Amino acid sequence: MGASRPVYLDNHSTTRVDPRVVDAMNPYWAEEYGNAASRQHEYGWRAEAAIVRAREQVASLVGASAEEVVFTSGATESINLALKGIAETSAGQGRHVITAATEHRAVLDTARRLEQYGFRVTVVPVDGSGLVDPDQVESAMIPGTILVSVMLANNEIGTIGPIEELAARCRRKKVLLHSDAVQAAGKIPVNVQTLGVDLLSLSAHKMHGPKGVGALVVRKSGAPVRLAAQLDGGGHERGMRSGTLNVPAIVGFGAAAEIALREGAEDASRMSRLRGILVDGILDRIDEVIVNGHPVQRLPNNANLTFPGASADAVMMEMRDIAVSSGSACSSAVPEPSHVLKAIGRSVEDARSSIRFGLGRFTTEEEIVYAVGRVAEAVSRVRARTRALV
Ligand SMILES: *Cc1c(COP(=O)(O)O)cnc(C)c1O
């Protein structure tokens, strides 16, 4: 493994496109290049047929019907469409939105934007394992609350949220519920009906599909959810998202969804076993390690570990052949420690000493065993150096 490429354990950031997905996409670049909205010729019909199929594949993965799937450029857009779209249509009923402290930036920053538009946002805290308390969400509801947005699975610590309980409370109070299911899809069963959500966001590239494509699932049964489009134009996606459909990417998303539905349980049990080897191996070799997130209500492919006394950046420099991620939001000029780790009670120091491991479909036991050794060496070396300095 030494001379080859780093071991990829950053599957919460993005995943390798499954070769079967690449095969499914291939004809749609230079052969089947029609515009799915072209109604007057064969090229358009064939592209449209491919979209119909992909829409069914994505819907099946989450127990939705095809008409409930709105294709977007990714989960960031899905989340923006859900929050802003609901805010726009429901502003007459109220201007209050509830979300949670550990949400992805796409949710938190969109909620901040809604504040600029005159909405009030309540951000509920989480407990030490990253769980929101449905009672606390319910107590935050006021007559003007229009939407709750809480993620299904967290992208940093893997905690799975109590979405079904939240949905029951939202229904009782006639508040809509959106859930960011990006990290959950393909890793745990996701069913919009069982969950009871009104809106659900998905992203292809987190489930071995291509980047730049996602979906917003918008409930149509019962009282259909009404949503204001945030992109106006040709009226694609039943008017909810104009713009020529990215046919190759959507075909790839569909193929990825079909594979995830068929093989997800098997992938999950393999990843869960490998995660066990990773975490146990590291705990065996290094002392004073904190395992972040919920012990059981968690994704099978996530491990987030705090190594007090060893800065994550320094550890990662010591093991460049292991591709992992520190919790910091690297998009800002000054890396801020992770808001998720802070929300579960880690100190700024400990948050900066935390590493996220994300396993994927293609992670092997050999890679995990190798990574355990490299992490142990790197943490020991950084700790020894840090102690020598003080
Ligand atoms: C990656 C991610 C997003 C954003 O998805 P994109 O398709 O990259 O825009 C949103 N939420 C979570 C939890 C994510 O992990």
List the helices and strands and how they pair.
Elements: E1 7-8, H1 19-25, H2 27-30, H3 42-61, E2 69-72, H4 75-90, E3 96-100, H5 105-116, E4 120-124, H6 134-140, E5 145-149, H7 163-172, E6 176-180, H8 192-195, E7 199-203, E8 214-218, H9 247-285, E9 290-292, E10 302-306, H10 312-318, E11 322-323, E12 325-326, H11 339-343, H12 348-351, E13 354-358, H13 365-389
Helix pairs in contact: 1-9, 3-9, 4-5, 9-13, 10-13
The structure holds pyridoxal-5'-phosphate.
Residues 12, 74-76, 104, 106, 151, 155, 180, 182-183, 203, 206, 214 line the site of pyridoxal-5'-phosphate (PLP).
Distance between the termini: 35 Å
Per CATH, the architecture of the largest domain is 3-Layer(aba) Sandwich
Number of domains: 2
Uncertain residue ranges: none
Largest sheet: 7 strands, mixed
Note the total helix count.
Answer: 13
